[in-house]
Amino acid sequence: MTQPRLLVRNLSCGRGERALFHDLDFELRGGEAARVRGENGCGKTTLLRTLAGLQTPHAGAVHWQSAAPAPDGEPVLLQYDLCFVGHENALNGRLTPSENLDVLMRLAARRVSVRAIRQVLAELGLERVAERPCERLSAGQKRRVSLARLWLSEAPLWLLDEPASALDVESRAVLCARIDAHVAGGGIVVFTTHEELTLTHTRVRAIELTPC
Question: Are strands 5-15 and 18-29 parallel, antiparallel or unpaired?
Answer without folding.
Answer: antiparallel
